[in-house]
Amino acid sequence: MKKVFFVGIGGIGMSGLAIILKSRGIEVLGSDRQENEKTKELSKMGIIVFIGHSENNITDDIDLVVYTNAVKEDNPEITEAKRKGIKVISRAELLAEIEKDYFSIGIAGTHGKTTTTSMVSKILLDAGFDPTISNGGNLPYIGGNARVGNSKYFVYEACEAFGSFLHFHPNIGVITSVDNDHVAEYYKTMDNLIKAFATYINNIKEDGTVIINGDDPNTFTALTESSRVGCITYGIREGNDIIADKIKLKQKTTEFDVYFKGNYITTLSINVPGIHNVYNSLAAFGVGMSLGIPTETIVKSLSNFKNAERRFEVKYESESITIIDDYGHHPAEIKATLTSAKNLGKGEVIAVFQPHLWSRTYYLYRDFALALNIADKIIITEVYGAREPKIEGVSAKMIADELKKMGRDNDIFFTQKKDDVIDIITSIIKNNSVVVLLGAGDINKIFSTLLE
After folding, report:
1. So what's the pLDDT on residue 452?
2. Residue 138 confidence class, pLDDT cut points 50, 70, 90
3. For residues 380 and 416, what is the distance between their CA atoms, to the nearest angstrom?
4. For 75, which DSSP code?
5. pLDDT for 83 beyond 70
6. Following DSSP, what letter does each residue of 141-173 receive, concatenated?
7. Domains of the chain, with CATH numbers?
8. Between 419 and 413, whose confidence is greater?
9. What is the mean pLDDT of residues 66-94?
10. Distance between CA atoms of 409 and 425, rounded to whole angstroms?
11. Any alpha helices (H) in 100-134, and if so which ranges?
């Protein structure tokens, strides 16, 4: 294989695999519908990136075409590749092929994948394991979302969307949580989603290690529905193998004791807030222990951990305003983020939420309302449809209306135009407010304007 074309190369997952292939001496090129930071980064690396999709981009000398699930089946480049007889595979299928060359560590779960992958990556880096990394967010300590190492270890984020993770067979497999996401657009029922996670567990290599959140009911159900015997569980409840106790949730940090099979191991302090990050760090701790990494190395690594971009990222902080950017696009994630924002102990928390996907909005609008209700003031913009066509009758206004039913008439603001958000914030903001930008779309792009 000498030449590979990526359809949708600017995506966070696709760009990482493109970098890995280029490091192997393969000629890599690709396309995306619009320029972004990733396409610019790839271009600087010498990768040809076409802006816009065209059948003319697919030449006869291309050996393989890789596509992201964000593109449609009638994409002209995919159509042309098939017409020319060029092999066409999904991003997940390519990752599965890359995985075969490594001792692989796959991090799966509805919530916490990127943070846990980031933590595991840092532990391995600090332990001198020199891993190859493919993550769902930009990591400050590797300067991006991907890293090419010179060892047998490969850490990657195993996404469940469209059944992608069913292609993978890691040596160490982690499941952080199983929650109602990607059900409306793909799995159709929670039972199907849980069965998919059970299959993922079965796909972890027979002599490998399974590490799961033992406090999460759906994750535990997936384990029981699998044929797997033996695993490492983590959580804050008794009965788990790895347990966090004496948890102290502070404004920007979290401290807790770690126990393994009832024995005290260490006291851990992490520079990320929230109970959800206690769980994420326990999962990472489990991976480190499974690899035989000394406890002191794990503790030191996690104690100075800095999360990936858009994961409770404090973009600006002064006496008058704090601006936080977060990728949270599911009710559970929003609840965790807003709770952490409240715990900062500052002034009013203003949530600015842009829902992601029409189907997710339709099926979870009541849950979104409950999660957003934590904030003092709430601004909701119209849905960022991404890969989905608009669903008739569905709007982010459904969330706003639900909040009004809960008695939130005077502090709920809905706008179809993202550009109006700045004016709304300016009109309601008070001294020492915390503005939290929430969503997996492009709501974070208002940050520079907001700062002005």
Report:
1. 61
2. confident
3. 8
4. -
5. yes
6. TTTEEEE--SSSEEEEE---GGGGGGG---SEE
7. 3-89 (3.40.50.720), 102-303 (3.40.1190.10), 313-451 (3.90.190.20)
8. 413
9. 93
10. 17
11. 113-126
Given a cut of 90, whether residue 448 has pLDDT beyond it is: no
**DSSP 8-state class, residue 236:** S
Q: What are the start-end ranges of the E strands in 76-139?
A: 87-90, 103-108, 132-139
List 196's β-bridge partners, or say none. none
Q: Across the chain, what does the average pLDDT equal?
A: 93
Pairwise CA distance, residues 50 & 216, whole Å: 43
Cβ atoms within 10 Å of 19's Cβ, excluding its own: 22
Per-residue model confidence as pLDDT tens digits over 427-447: 898 888 999 999 988 888 887
Report CA Rg, the chain.
22
CA distance 56 to 127: 47
pLDDT score for 449: 74
Contact (CB, 8 A) for 376 and 412: no
CA distance 173 to 203: 9
pLDDT at position 63 over 80: yes
The burial class, CB within 10 Å (0-12 / 13-18 / 19+), for 251 is exposed
Q: What is the DSSP string of 287-339?
A: HHHHTT--HHHHHHHHHT--PPTTSSEEEEE-SSEEEEEE---SHHHHHHHHH
Phi and psi, residue 373, nearest 5°: -60, -15
Handedness of CA 323, 327, 330, 333 (dihedral sign): negative
Reported as a pLDDT band with limits 50, 70 and 90, residue 17 is: very high
> Which are the catalytic amino acids?
113-114, 157
**Could you tell me if residue 50 is left (phi over 0), alpha (psi between -120 and 50 degrees) or otherwise beta?**
beta
Q: What is the distance between the alpha carbons of residues 355 and 386, in angstroms, rounded to a whole number? A: 10
Q: What is the pLDDT of residues 292-350, one digit of tens each?
A: 999 999 999 999 998 877 888 888 888 888 999 998 888 989 998 999 899 888 889 99
Does the pLDDT at position 451 exceed 80? no
How many Å apart are CA 73 and CA 71, to the nearest integer? 7
**How far is the C-alpha of 370 from the C-alpha of 93, rounded, in Å?**
37
- φ/ψ (deg, to 5) at 67: -125, 155
For 5, the enclosing helix (H) or strand (E) is strand 3-7
Sign of CA dihedral 278, 283, 284, 286: positive
Sheet holding 64-67, edge to edge: 48-51, 27-32, 3-7, 64-67, 87-90
pLDDT higher at 69 or 86:
86
**C-beta neighbour count of 452 within 10 angstroms:** 6
Nearest to 17 by CA among 121, 127, 98: 98
